[in-house]
Specification:
about 220 residues, mainly alpha, 8 helices, about 70% helix
C-alpha cells in the first residue's frame, strides 16, 4: 500500500474541520484527515474509543437499574440478618490502589513515546501488580461477605456490578501483560504502540467506572 495515499473522507461529519478546535488530549482519539493511510494509530484509537462508549452504555444500564431498585425497595433492600457491603478500611485501600494505578500507567505510556523502554517496563509492571492486588482484594472481600448472589436484590446487584467490573479489570491486566511481553520483542514498538495506548485508555475507563460503583455500593450503603 502506498503510505502517501489519502483516502476520500465520505463520512457525513467533516471531523478535520472541527479537529483543530479540539484539545490535544482529545485529538489522539480521532483519525487524522479522515483516512490518511499511515494513520493506523488514529483510526485504531477512534475505533477503540467507540467500543468503550458502547461498554459505558452497558455499565450505565446496570448502574441506573441498581439506583432504580434501591429507590423502590428502600425498606426491603436488606433481608433480615444481612448487613450488606461495608465501607471498610480494606475496601478503601483496595480502591486507592486501583485508582492510583491510572497515575502510573499514563507515565508508562509517555515513557514509551519517549523511547524510554526500561522505564516503561517498570511502570507497566507496577500497574499490573496494582491491578492484580485489586482483584485479589475483591476476591477476599467476596469470601468474607455474609450474603451471596441469591440473597435478594442486594446480593444480585452487588455481585453483578462488581463481577462485571472485575472481569474488565482482569481483561485489562491480561492486556497489560501482553503489552509488556511484546516490549521484549526487538523493535516491536518502533513503528507504533497502538496496543499500549488502547490498554492505557481501557484502564482509565475501568478506574472511572469503579468510582461510580464505589459511591453507589459503599458510600450510599454507609
Amino acid at each position: 500500500m502506498n503510505r502517501g495515499v489519502i483516502h476520500i473522507d465520505e463520512s457525513p461529519i467533516r471531523l478535520e474541520r472541527w479537529r483543530r478546535y479540539l484539545p490535544n488530549w482529545l485529538k489522539r482519539y480521532l483519525p487524522f484527515r479522515g483516512g490518511r493511510s499511515e494513520d493506523h494509530h488514529g483510526k485504531g484509537m477512534f475505533g477503540f474509543t467507540v467500543f468503550l462508549l458502547s461498554e459505558s452504555i452497558v455499565f450505565l444500564s446496570f448502574i441506573f437499574t441498581y439506583i432504580a431498585l434501591r429507590l423502590t425497595h428502600l425498606k426491603t433492600w436488606l433481608p433480615p440478618g444481612v448487613s450488606g457491603p461495608k465501607l471498610s478500611t480494606f475496601v478503601i485501600i483496595n480502591t486507592v490502589v486501583l485508582l492510583s494505578s491510572s497515575f502510573v500507567i499514563q507515565p508508562a505510556e509517555n515513557s514509551l513515546k519517549r523511547h524510554q523502554l526500561n522505564k516503561f517496563r517498570w511502570l507497566w509492571l507496577i500497574t499490573i501488580c496494582m491491578g492484580t492486588y485489586f482483584l485479589i482484594g475483591q476476591g477476599i472481600e467476596w469470601s468474607n461477605l455474609n450474603f451471596g448472589l441469591s440473597t435478594g436484590l442486594v446480593g444480585s446487584t452487588f455481585y453483578i456490578l462488581t463481577g462485571f467490573h472485575g472481569f474488565h479489570v482482569l481483561a485489562g491486566v491480561i492486556f497489560q501483560i501482553t503489552m509488556l511481553l511484546r516490549s521484549f520483542m526487538p523493535g516491536n514498538y518502533d513503528k507504533g504502540h497502538f496496543g499500549v495506548s488502547a490498554t492505557t485508555l481501557f484502564w482509565h475507563f475501568v478506574d472511572i467506572v469503579w468510582i461510580f460503583l464505589f459511591c453507589g455500593l459503599y458510600i450510599w450503603q454507609a
